[in-house]
Amino acid sequence: MSTLQLPVENPTKDFKEHISDNSNKRILFSGKFGSGKTYFLNTFFEHEDEYEVIRIFPVNYSVSNNEDIFELVKYDVLFELMNKGLSFEKVKFSKIETLPFFMSNNYYEIVKIIIEKFTKTGKDFSSIAKDIAKLIEKYNSFHESMQINSEETAIKYLKSFSKKQGNIYEEDAFSLLIAELIDQIQSRERHKKVVLIVDDLDRIDPEHIFRLLNVFAAHFDVRQNQNKFDFDKVIFVCDVENVRNIFHSKYGQSCDFSGYIDKFYSKTVFNFDNSDIIESHITMILRSIKIDKRGYFEDNDIQLILTSYILTAMVKAKLVNMRLITKLYQLEYNQKQYSINSTYSNSSIWAFFSFDFLSFILGGGENLREHLSKCVRVNNLLNKWDNYERGLDSVFSIIIFFKEMSGNNSDQYHDKASNVYFVYSIKQTEKVYIAEIHSAFMYPNPNSSSTQSVKKKDINLLQLSLDAVDAIRNNGFLH
Fold this sequence. Notes:
The protein is of the alpha/beta class. It is 49% helix and 12% strand. The chain contains 18 helices and twelve strands. The strands form three sheets. A five-stranded parallel beta sheet has the order 2-3-4-1-5. Strands 9-10-11-12 form a four-stranded antiparallel beta sheet, covered by helices on one side. The protein has a three-stranded mixed beta sheet with strand order 7-6-8, with no helix packed on it. A hairpin with a 4-residue loop joins strand 10 (420-428) and strand 11 (433-442). Helix 13 (302-316) packs across helix 15. The longest helix has 21 residues, at 125-145. The relative contact order is 0.10. Mean pLDDT is 81; it is low at 162-171.
């Protein structure tokens, strides 16, 4: 089975404009699960030579302690940088660079000396001088320990990480090393912008999500509008609505999510939507499916028309994503065959195939029913389709078949969900059962005898499909 590659031209144009803004240093790239965010970003950066991309996937951190998150980020970033063919000659840090780290980790010792110098009960000056000399000696030793000599040292750090974390000085040294390697890409070697992609952010433990975000936020606060490790751009990939729900679940509904999250993007949230691409390829993907190892959906088949229609509605309603649709490409599907009564099987009523197939790909009849109930509202966006009326008759045939099985043989049917009365006739042969809608009427007031004609194109096919699935399930099928 070959892999389906969908085009990404439309989102590419929008995202290129978004990321090209030099002031847009932090980007929140939001899209639903399975919508193809990672696929899009991979494809986008494959064709953009001005960027060098480092990708990390924090979902792999789920078994780690919360306090280890930043170390894991550094590990992943350094590991990715080592695959970029950068120069690992001796990296020398100046004392101006290492002094802040030393002072932050020897704060109490420095303060103690100052206090002792300026208090009446403190030590005499000669004793203080000795303490200062010892502190300077300690700093010089620390400064030397911050120098990283070669690629072997970096490899040693990576190998030892899984066994034991380094001390705080070594950790800070490797932070500086990461910044130095990024600088090589930015200026000295390749003149590229370096982009860090933090993918699948909302698929990790809630504690880890906010710990990871806060690590970057702390850096934004200290060094205004500058990213951690001096990345030119950092892209956080998630579904922002999912993160919002996690935030409120953790901190309460009264906490201001917008005030929290807006620190992680410079301009606006980039909302990734590729539903138009998916919709335009649904029929092609269905045509690639091999049915019973013999044939495929035929172009004008009612099964293809109805299945494509319902899947498109589910995409529009954000219920079916790119991941599920692309998995159907060149699928081998074995059609169910079962008897409904002594005369007819499921293949005798054409729409049965569509609902059997949709139940299969969605994980069961209950899931199919739930999806249909949620996407009924998008019907008015789709009822201009060609063959819409054929789809209506096909679905309606299921409802009428089971109505007649119960002994109700009138030529009218009242759909209680829409309060529409249908007038129909039945065409049946030995192999096929079809109920054809002739007209439809709506009773605006149950106590009134006046009727209002309903045009066939205004009948909600998705509501009718939901009624058909209910009829099928109520008679013991699609469970």
